[in-house]
Unspecific monooxygenase
Amino acid sequence: MRAEILSVIGTDAIQEIQRCANIIGFNVPHRTVRDTSVGPFKIPADTLVIGQIHNILANSPVFKDSKQFRPERFLMEDGVTPNKEAVDQFCPFSVGKRQCAGESLARVELFIGIVTLLQNYKIQPVKGREVDMDAVFTITLLPKEQPLRLIPLTSEIL
């Protein structure tokens, strides 16, 4: 059953949900242990650096049209093979030794939650309203409150 679910759903849609709706705006602070550079920028040793995960996921050249929900950006043109460049830039849980310890649990919960929701409801915007994908910046990034229609799926529809 797991293989069937993964073959039907895959990881591209879940990755795109996380990219569009990541709740972490900033990474935890780190300190450089030696002189280094990031692109054209020189960073001296013992400098406090804070990565902006939201900017990476929203503004990377890999994620063009970042306000558009496009799961296919994580796949090559064949629709099956993962797009290595997109996967490598995808870092909703940070990277390195100090990445989120709860990543595995979060991925499972997200997958189960989305599958359960979509298995039981059709989700639509309220007629005449568009969904606003901009986040509200607090300690975490939150979606703006907005009306949506959750239409229960009956057994006849399934």
Observations:
- Residues 75 and 82 are 4 Å apart (CA to CA).
- Residues 103-120 form the longest helix (18 residues).
- The chain is about 30% helix and 15% strand.
